[in-house]
Amino acid sequence: xxxxxxxxxxxxxxxxxxxxxxxxxxxxxxxxxxxxxxxxxxxxxxxxxxxxxxxxxxxxxxxxxxxxxxxxxxxxxxxxxxxxxxxxxxxxxxxxxxxxxxxxxxxxxxxxxxxxxxxxxxxxxxxxxxxxxxxxxxxxxxxxxxxxxxxxxxxxxxxxxxxxxxxxxxxxxxxxxxxxxxxxxxxxxxxxxxxxxxxxxxxxxxxxxxxxxxxxxxxxxxxxxxxxxxxxxxxxxxxxxxxxxxxxxxxxxxxxxxxxxxxxxxx
Length: 267
Known about the structure:
By secondary structure, this protein is an alpha/beta fold. The protein has a single domain, classed as Rossmann fold. Helices cover 29% and strands 26% of the residues. The protein has helices at 42-57, 71-81, 102-114, 140-147, 205-220, 254-266; strands at residues 4-8, 11-13, 21-24, 27-30, 38-40, 62-69, 88-93, 124-129, 153-162, 168-174, 178-184, 189-193, 223-224. The strands form three sheets. The chain has a nine-stranded mixed β-sheet with strand order 11-10-9-12-8-1-6-7-13, with helices on both faces. The chain has a two-stranded antiparallel ribbon with strand order 2-5. The chain has a two-stranded antiparallel sheet with strand order 3-4. The longest helix is centred in the N-terminal third of the chain and has 16 residues, at 42-57. The N and C termini lie far apart (59 Å).
């Protein structure tokens, strides 16, 4: 069976950068956000790589990447991502910071997916990150799926095995550090990926050249996504405070050290 796989993936500042929140005229933002180098969200990256392998193993399948962010930043990130796996970009121009309302982002993503020409919902799989390095509400992907009418949703996915009959066997995380195996008769379905099981693909210039033929036109046609943030208010935005209290003590028993740490945590 062939699949139509839509991967929802945002862009985030490179995790090696120092992020400092500031109060801008339009609300909370990151200091010098447009100057920070960006990468594809690490959680969503796993989803993209898993989608590419599934499409490769199911001839006739196709992968779309739907991403919401500033057009200039999307172009910067796609220059790198395009060399990893084949996909067709659906770009939305809007804010990429974590200070956006999940419901509004979900609505914009769902609308963009529904507008994909020739999309067959009977073959549709929506992939994305179970979590996010910016929009860590853990609800955006779920709400996008609900707007698309997809009720078969799986979160914290680490592995997907597609059967010859189109059925899906899904390994997903549950509480207590355990996994459960779920079975789905077939698409449409939504999968929020955790780490997956695949390494990052190597750069392939041929894939990059094929992707770039469609990437630039897609970026030029990026539809503005207006996220009004109505009813959303931040009272304050600050960096977490650093606290360090170091003691050097000799000849103290492990039990005494553990008791002292427990008492310190309580206070």
